[in-house]
Amino acid sequence: MERSNEYEDVAVALAEVKPTPREDFAAELDELVAAGFPRKSRSGRPWALGARFGRLSPQRLLFATGGAALAAIAIATIVIASNDPATEPVALDSGRRLDSRPQTQLSEPVPQAAPGTTGRSTGSSAAGSVTGQSTESSAAAESVKEYSTSLPNSNSSYPTLSRTTHREIERSAEIALLADPADVADDSAKVFSAVHDARGIVLRSTTTAGRNAGAHFDLLIPSARLGDALAAFSTIDEVRTRHEATADITKPSVTANEELQDSRARIDGLLAQLSTAEIESEREAIEAELRGERRHAARLRSQVARLHQRADFSRVSLRIESDSSSEAPGGDWGIDDAFGDAGHILGIAAGVILVGLAIVAPLALIALLAWLAHRLWLRSRRERALGA
Amino acid sequence: MSETLVATAADAPREGDLAFDEPYRSSRDDVYAYAAGLVRDRAAAEDVTATAFERAYRKRSRFDPRRGNGRAWLFGIARNAALDELRRRGRQAELSAEPIDTTSPNTEHSELRLLLIGALEKLDARERELVALKFFAGLSNVEIAAVLEIGESNVGTKLHRAVTKLREVCDGAF
């Protein structure tokens, strides 16, 4: 409750001593107000922009900050998404870019094959692609290293070991093509043609017609021509997936060869004994042992042949697939892909926001605390100026 | 580097500035009187008044009527400007070479006026500020409470104390 009446006498008395501004000051101030308080300004001041921001209303400042934050998030999302292979499922998994992409060499080059073993582990087969299962590739390279250190010294008494001084590399590949159901038959024919051109073998083939048309091929391709064959398969239709793997089978090859040489040596020894044997029972015993050793040698030869075949021929599993998404109008990118991509982009955006908040939130908190501290300090200084 | 007065497009008077003109005209003399009563120096009071109106002009878009009336908001700005001036000059409302009484066109060196000026000098700075806000600027207790950021009853108590002190000094002259 104000005591206006109580202070009326004081008010009247103090009105007599109320300071009034000089007329010229009042006129000058009127002019300044009319002109909108023109600023003393120096061109090129670096803080001019800051002052300009300072004049913005909180709402405009909020909008400006929000817009800048949104732009930063959008840019960061685009940058991250463009660097993230997962956002290019079409291009990487089923795009044709794989077709003409040069195939990657094994990280550790395979030694050159000896004459006569061309196409086994070196030459054009060594240049075969080893993309895809890099872990297997590196594991194979590792086993190459390990075995190289454990190999016995070269010995002229083991003539067949010349082969084992080179790596025996078994290769395999899987490739899936995406085709229109109507094109599956044509694509299958092209596969046969490509296999023929590569002098490969079709072990098994299955072709299905109809709406869910597809085909599956189990192939053996000469390792020396594997790269060319895969390139040819890739041109037949759109590549959806492609995996290649290598395995070093040098060690079992060397072991089988050594055992075969031992067996041959034993056979030679038994034949020598047989030629000198005079007693019938002794001859029969040697012959029995000889038969057993020959069977053993035959098994070893078969084993060596299988290992050589594994190195000489690469297994290729080829699938031709067709699905409803490939029939979507406008190409191979459908509504499911759109949802998937949208979800992925939203996930990235959320991640960017989270990271941004993790960076900005502590800074904002520090700035807020500093601002509050400054206000308190300023207020305290002002009150002290008055009260002291 | 040359320093020039530049009225940028942002500074140019706009339609909304009409809303500033009215409170300016109605408060100009009151703000000056309050500033002069607080800083006790004519030149400083003019600086404070000009600074206060300039700050108010720049911040006019931030004024929120829900948080108080415009007059209280304006005097809050003027108070900060005055305290900044006091702080900057390292003075505490002392008499200066240009005391406020000589600036008044109503100056009549009457006995009562001298008595009042002497009485005002005997008040401490906070009491003098309160008197200036109440009797020079003509603010209500509610507005003074908003300016000083204290309670309205507290304003009433302090004001009563200051007026009592004034009366005692003047010894029943009014």
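The radius of gyration of chain A is 42 Å.
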